[in-house]
Structure to design on (202 residues):
């Protein structure tokens, strides 16, 4: 049975309720307000994820769980996410859009005390990011904005696919070598830490 006309599936693209569109800007052309708002919300979500990865990196720099290579991996991914957020804001500016500054909440990673839950947390975040990017592409298509659709797909969505695959493989290997969800494991974490060169090449 076909979906009734005019009815839209509920989307999870982060919204900016206080968004203020700049209607008078000369740069804005064929840029739907709802897509502008979606880009504003998604960029903030990517910044929030970058902050969470930075917090995870700090966990593996502590003296009770010193895994310097993994800490560097989380730092690197945090910087990449920050660069992605900045690239999205640059695109928003080029299209004549407006970004609303928001307060980034605390990362809520206090419960993470071992490598396995950190990787699971990271994988869940990347899957969530992929889901909202897919929905952002759908939103752009629905509102006849092929430029945004193409940009999000090529610059943000496609590069995320191999990263999720890498992290899935890393989680599988972490379980095989005996990594635990608490602070009791040690040798498995050490073995995974030695895979930093493989992680860094992704």
């Amino acid at each position: 049975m076909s979906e009734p006309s005019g009815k839209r599936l509920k989307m999870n693209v982060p919204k900016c309720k206080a968004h203020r569109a700049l209607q008078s800007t000369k740069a804005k052309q064929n840029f739907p307000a709802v897509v502008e708002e979606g880009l504003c919300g998604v960029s903030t979500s990517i910044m929030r994820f970058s902050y969470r990865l930075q917090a995870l990196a700090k966990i593996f720099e502590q003296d009770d769980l010193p895994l310097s290579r993994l800490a560097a991996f989380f730092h690197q991914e945090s910087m990449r996410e920050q660069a992605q957020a900045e690239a999205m804001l640059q695109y928003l500016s080029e299209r004549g859009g407006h970004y609303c500054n928001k307060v980034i909440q605390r990362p809520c990673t206090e419960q993470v005390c071992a490598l396995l839950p950190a990787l699971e947390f990271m994988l869940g975040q990347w899957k969530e990011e992929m889901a909202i990017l897919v929905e952002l592409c759908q939103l752009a298509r629905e509102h006849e904005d092929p430029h945004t659709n193409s940009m999000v797909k090529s610059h943000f969505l496609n590069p995320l696919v191999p990263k999720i695959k890498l992290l899935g493989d890393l989680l599988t290997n972490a379980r095989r070598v005996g990594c635990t969800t608490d602070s009791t494991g040690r040798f498995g974490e050490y073995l995974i830490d030695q895979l930093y060169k493989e992680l860094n090449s992704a």
User: Anything to note?
Assistant: Residues 1-10 have pLDDT under 50 and may be disordered.
